[in-house]
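hey can u check if this looks right to u? its 105 residues, i copy pasted from the old doc so theres a chance i mangled smth
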Amino acid sequence: MKRQFLGLLARIYVLQFAVEVPATVAMLAEMLMEYGFQVDIGTVRPLLRALQMEGYMESVLRDGIGRVYLITERGREELRSSRSHVDDLYRRLHSRSDPSEASHS
């Protein structure tokens, strides 16, 4: 379960990073590591391949850089939806209507 959740979270991060800047696999792996994910290029490639197969990202060759990954319009829609779900979860986790708090009053 934890692994699946981290995989979903990594997808959201990668889509967000792709909005900010076209990135290589190495750049995306480095960005994920900065956020505490234990990944390397070998674990990021399958994630990128899955995102491409789902139509959320595309890759292009750039002179002097190599292959970079870009978010598609479909990926932007998925990111908006994912952000909405994350925002809802955050609100629920931080709401004052925690039943355990009410029983102490």
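Helices lie at 2-20, 25-34, 41-53, 73-93, 99-102.
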